[in-house]
Design brief:
The structure holds 3 protein chains of 3 kinds. Chain B is mostly helical. Chain B has helices at 27-37, 39-57, 93-129, 131-146, 149-160, 164-190, 194-201, 206-217, 219-243, 254-263, 270-297. Classes of the chains: A alpha+beta, B mainly alpha, C mainly alpha.
């Protein structure tokens, strides 16, 4: 046994000597950013990825036709300019001539045609395929009804990409910022198949290239010298560290082992506001936390008054300020604030005082015909935050309406199954926007196949939603979408609880990390001062 | 199980067997008498009783219910109103720790007894019978060790619904495995001894040999391991709660309170300290009681 | 003994097959699938995924395919970590977990055994009480409390040790200590218990009466007999400790295998779950075989049959 120990210790000492030697030289030569990145990335293939941890890495590794600006906005990417036809159906992109893959190959229009076809190919089995469904024939290609060659993406010459849409989509440029629209290097994918995303194989076209990937350990990307804007990329290296435990992440940050956190633990926010004031970044994030009613079964089926009573009885100010207290905003509407040209439809009740809402809640409850000692069940997936909120809201319902609430927590996948099977009365849920357009929110309740958690189907709403989709004029479109949201809020198949806030700790010597509603932060704009 | 004949416990070395005078008192009465002479054990029993009584009735001292929230006392430190402070929902921790104690003590007691009984009988039987039967029984244990516990719990919940009794089933189903292996190991080492062979030769049935000779001779490690099982099951219960099978809010348990407290250890240490303290004191008591029982049952020690 | 070992190793094959079969169907009957998420997928996308991961065949057919694949040593690609095969993930993770767990195990046995023996020799003294109080604390305070507390005090406040990461010697100290702690406590407790038992038995009394020095006597006689229950416990415990702990790995950022046992199941990563189940099952069988062989060595009265 002692032999074993000596051997193991010896190995570790040797490893540590090597590692610290590397660290020593690194400290002098390199500018390194260490980012907490939530969970281990599920994949680094941009066409298969779907989560935020993956995406954070991919916007460093790849560059699409359009790119992410530091503030989450849109800027030219591989395309230096583009034109959109008057009917909104044809997008013509002119590619820059100095765009290169990390192996030196030029990035051409053919790469994009291949990449879009690969992304839509049913064999790729992309979970986020729907984000490109606005492209002509995309849905049929993905469904296996048409060959990939029929996809509406063509390359009339090596530096021009033409994308034809099935129907006009005002937010289409935003969709092109998704990893689904990133180019991949065909020769590499063909040569290595499933293994092409390994550090020793991957060829990418972004400001950084993949250097190391230890599953559950770290993903390290280093500056790519072939990137067209390499001169302005100041970081030499970015380390993405999977740290799913937020308390552990906070400890790492405080110990100086991390420059940027992925999140911060909600219960420590008070402490952070006091002690890490300058490092704390907090602001509106494009997401809504809500409670879905199951409108396909009693007691909430066909009982608007009861749904309203429960919604009005929640004191969202207390919830946002005292219980959640992480900078999130009380929600009275489905679409979160901060979307340009769109006015949230909160209804009159948002402007009332909570005392007034309580009165109305009691009135609605009386009207609803529900028994005085009504008992409801609230389903949530296991998490400290969801638990805390559920306890608070159950207490509010009890105080205002006198109803008792059974709390039912389930493990995530069981919870999703219960929700799909409509095996619940009220369920906690959340929706995070994919792009800064109300469409990303409104579409959830426009699904006819009862894909929304509430099981709510409203023809009037669907008609308005489709009408908006076919409206060219942006102001008119916004107006129609607002009407749609009005319909939704009037029928209240769900209770908006709060609009999310992003929360990060960013070390003081990190510059160029810009707060933004999409909460994406390309590292090509980040610098570290000493 | 009262016996009036000679002690069931046989000395570890069979050569030491001497005729013993029949004492007219049962083994268990003797043991109890000896236990009562063990000061640490008696004190522990006293403390444990106090904890049980406090957990059952203590909340009558306070005007709070287990689910009363106070928005102004979120994460508040202990004071004259909230003796143990408040949790992240402003609920009184004193009341919650006591309520949690009921669940945890019940789980600790019942689940441990379940695992104890199954484990000891299973292990002794396998070890004593030996051969193919032992081999098959132990392979069954290997299988249970290897199966993914989480799916077992989820399926239990899906098939039988959520029910507090399932906690005991789920925990009992896994916790007896270690016990079975330990008892089997002991059995293998004692079954070849003369007094067992002698019992065999004189026609005592297998079941009676297991019951009267094998099991009592494994009691030492069994008692020790039992005191180790209690904290395990109490903490395992909080994992079941995570999966949705354990106690559901607003009800709570020490395991759940401790895991909540762990997330708040720096900003609200009282959330961790109080349930951990109660659990620790309980386990210390059980430990001393366990040692006392073992000594009391040990014939060599008279 | 050789025949016994060979027989047991052959017997491991049906045992593993039963484990695989039960685990496979248990997992697949449980609600939720690998591709369920907040966003319910459109049917065509769901179909593409099922096709790619061969989830559209009837369950028994899938099971037959799976068995065929693992007989060829192919555990398939992970459903969650899509760029890696299950075999790769397990091997990579285990190479780390085995180091952390192996060292922790040795430390636990040495310290736990020593503490337990000392406590037994000084039964009912202050030393005994102190050792057992420390051990009980180690058992009472779970690692999800010890690990973050240690990181906070030793890493954040005192800056003595790094909080997370893997590769440097000093990064390994906290996780190994946190992993070993409860096992030290268990082993100390078990050793003390059986040591007391043995010390009271006649052969030790005789040895003591003959004037053998305590140390010799303990090592030569008492230790061997006292080890039995500890060894019984250590079989499965060793399999557990060298496959890591999800809590320790996540808090200290150790790229080990322990998280896959919990995360794999939570993600319904079917192939990964099966991979770790088979791997863990094999370890359990192996370690329990070693334990049985050790019984024979430690106590000549135990006959292996």
């Amino acid at each position: 046994m002692s032999k074993l120990r000596t051997l193991l210790t010896g190995t570790m000492v040797a490893a540590s000597v090597l590692a610290s030697a590397a660290a020593f030289s690194a400290a002098h030569a390199e500018s390194v950013l260490r980012r907490g990145n939530g969970d281990e990335p599920a994949t680094l293939d941009p066409h298969i990825a779907q989560g935020i941890p993956e995406f954070n890495i991919q916007i460093d590794l790849f560059e699409g036709l359009v790119a992410w600006a530091a503030d989450g906005g849109t800027m030219p990417g591989v395309a230096e300019s583009w034109t959109i036809s008057d009917d909104g159906l044809t997008y013509t992109f002119k590619l820059r001539h100095d765009a290169k893959w990390s192996n030196g190959d030029p990035v051409t229009a053919g790469d994009f045609v291949y990449s879009f076809q690969r992304a839509m190919d049913p064999k790729t089995a992309s979970e986020y395929a729907f984000i490109l469904f606005p492209i002509k024939n995309a849905e049929d290609v993905n469904g296996g009804k048409l060959p990939v060659g029929d996809l509406g993406v063509t390359a009339p010459d090596p530096y021009t990409v033409v994308i034809t849409l099935g129907k006009s989509t005002p937010y289409f440029l935003e969709s092109l910022k998704h990893s689904m629209a990133f180019p991949v290097h065909k020769a590499t994918v063909d040569a290595y198949g499933d293994q092409w995303t390994r550090p020793e194989h991957m060829v990418s076209n972004g400001p950084f290239k993949l250097a190391e990937w230890v599953p559950q350990g770290h993903v390290t990307v280093v500056k790519s010298n072939t990137f067209h804007d390499a001169a302005d990329v100041k970081l030499d290296k970015v380390e993405f560290l999977p740290i799913p435990d937020q308390n552990a992440e906070l400890s790492s940050f405080r110990a100086g082992e991390l420059d940027v956190t992925y999140e911060v633990p909600n219960n420590q926010i008070g402490w952070i506001r006091e002690n890490l004031k300058d490092e704390f970044r907090n602001g509106a994030y494009l997401g809504t936390y809500y409670y879905a009613f199951n409108v396909t079964a009693a007691p909430f089926k066909d009982n608007l008054a009861l749904r309203k009573a429960l919604s009005y009885a929640i004191d969202r100010d207390v919830l946002s300020e005292k219980v959640i207290a992480d900078g999130s905003l009380p929600a009275y509407s489905w679409v979160p604030p901060g979307l340009k040209g769109y006015e949230q439809q909160t209804g009159d009740w948002a402007k009332e005082t909570q005392a007034q809402r309580v009165e109305e809640a009691k009135k609605f409850f009386a009207e609803s015909g529900a028994p005085k000692d009504l008992s409801v069940e609230l389903l949530y997936n296991t998490s400290d935050n969801h638990k805390k909120i559920a306890i608070a809201i159950a207490a509010m319902w009890k105080q205002v309406l006198g109803i008792s609430t059974t709390l039912r927590n389930e493990e995530w996948k069981v919870y999703l199954d219960s929700r799909d099977e409509k095996n619940f009365q009220i369920a906690r849920a959340a929706w995070i926007g994919d792009y800064p357009d109300p469409n990303t929110f409104l579409e959830l309740y426009a699904t006819t196949g009862k894909l929304n958690p509430s099981g709510w189907v409203n023809q009037n709403y669907i008609d308005l939603f489709n009408k908006a989709a076919n409206t060219q004029d942006l102001a008119a479109r916004a107006k129609i979408m607002q009407d749609a949201e009005d319909v939704l809020m009037a029928d209240m198949p769900m209770i908006p609880v709060y609009h999310y806030a992003f929360k990060h700790l960013v070390a003081k010597n990190v510059q160029g990390w810009v707060n933004n509603i999409m909460n994406y932060h390309p590292d090509r704009f980040v610098t570290i001062s000493n | 199980m009262t016996q009036t004949s000679s002690p069931t416990r046989t000395p570890a070395d069979a050569s030491a067997v001497k005729p013993r005078k029949i004492q007219g008192r049962s083994l268990w009465q003797n043991a109890l008498r000896r236990l009562m002479r063990n000061k640490a054990a008696v004190a522990s029993i006293g403390v444990l009783l106090v904890i049980v009584i406090v957990c059952c009735f203590g909340q009558l001292l306070r005007p709070y219910a287990i689910d009363d929230v106070a928005w102004d006392a979120i994460g508040a430190p202990p004071d004259a109103n909230h003796w143990f402070g408040s949790d992240q929902n402003g609920r009184d921790l004193f009341v919650r720790v006591l309520f949690g104690g009921r669940i945890s003590l019940a789980v600790g007691l019942i689940a441990t007894i379940v695992s104890l009984v199954i484990g000891v009988l299973y292990g002794a039987t396998a070890g004593f019978l030996g051969g193919k039967i032992d081999s098959a029984m132990m392979r069954f244990v290997d299988i249970l060790y290897s199966l993914p516990f989480m799916f077992f719990v989820i399926l239990l919940m899906v098939i039988l619904g959520r029910n507090i009794l399932l906690i005991f089933v789920a925990i009992g189903a896994v916790e007896w495995l270690d016990m079975a292996r330990i008892v089997r190991g002991q059995t293998l080492s004692i079954k070849r001894r003369e007094f067992i062979e002698a019992a065999h030769a004189s026609g005592v049935s297998t079941w009676n040999i297991i019951r009267r000779h094998i099991v009592p001779n494994t009691l030492g490690p069994v008692v020790v391991y039992t005191t180790l099982t209690v904290p395990k099951v109490i903490l395992l219960e909080s994992f079941l709660s995570f999966l949705g099978l354990g106690v559901q809010e607003p009800m709570t348990s020490w395991g759940v309170l401790i895991s909540d407290g762990a997330a708040n250890m720096e900003i609200a240490p009282w959330m961790l300290v109080w349930p951990a303290l109660f659990l620790a004191v309980t386990l210390f008591c059980l430990n001393f009681i366990g040692d006392g029982i073992r000594d009391a049952l040990d014939p060599k020690d008279r | 003994m050789l025949a016994f070992t060979i027989r047991r190793l052959l017997g491991a094959i049906p045992t593993l097959l039963i484990i695989i079969a039960i685990a496979f169907f248990m997992m697949r009957v449980a609600p939720g699938g690998p591709f369920d998420g907040e966003r319910k997928l459109p049917p065509e996308i769901e179909r593409n995924l099922e096709q790619r991961y061969h989830l559209n065949d009837p369950l028994p057919v899938q099971f037959a395919h799976y068995l065929g694949d693992i007989l060829q040593g192919d555990f398939g690609p992970s459903f969650k970590y899509k760029d890696y095969s299950v075999t790769e993930l397990i091997l990579k993770g285990f190479s780390v977990s085995a180091v952390v767990g192996g060292i922790a195990l040795v430390i636990a046995m040495v310290i736990g055994g020593t503490l337990g023996s000392i406590a037994a020799l000084k039964q009912n003294t202050g030393t005994d009480f102190t050792v057992m109080a420390v051990a009980m604390t180690g058992i009472t305070v779970p690692n999800f409390v010890v690990a973050p507390l240690a990181a906070l005090v030793l890493g954040v406040f005192l800056h003595w040790l790094p909080v997370r990461g893997w590769g440097d010697f000093d990064q390994a100290i906290l996780p190994i200590a946190a992993l070993a702690l409860p096992y030290i406590a268990y082993i100390a407790r078990l050793t003390r218990g059986s040591m007391i038992e043995v010390l009271r038995s006649n052969f030790i009394r005789t040895a003591r009466a003959k004037g053998l020095p305590d140390r010799v006597m303990i090592v030569r006689h008492a230790m061997r007999a006292a080890l039995l229950p500890v060894i019984s416990y250590l079989g499965p415990a060793a399999a557990g400790i060298i496959t890591g702990s999800v809590v320790i790995e996540q808090i200290f950022g150790i790229p080990g295998i322990g998280r896959y046992f919990v995360q794999g199941a939570l993600n319904r990563d079917y192939t990964l779950v099966m991979g770790v189940v088979v791997f863990y099952g094999a370890l359990i069988i192996l370690f329990n075989l070693i334990v049985d062989l050790l019984y024979g060595l430690l106590d000549p009265r135990v006959r292996l049959d």
